[in-house]
Amino acid sequence: MMFILIAPYLAGLTDGVVSGKVNQGFYPRVLVRMVLSRLAGAVFA
Cα–Cα 20 to 30 A to 40, which of 2, 3, 12, 30? Predict the structure, then answer.
């Protein structure tokens, strides 16, 4: 279920980075935070 909600955001963010609308430094920070939040959710579940 989370994959369905998160994947469109990542796709849009990737398109924004490629088109230059989003700063390239923002993308890795978002990815790291998403991975850490999923890991924390798995640990606490």
Answer: 12
CA–CA gap between residue 21 and residue 3 (Å, rounded):
24
DSSP 8-state secondary structure symbol assigned to residue 24: T
Domain range list for the chain:
2-44
Residues 6+ apart with CB under 8 A from 12: none
Number of H helices, E strands in the chain: 2, 0
Reported pTM: 0.68
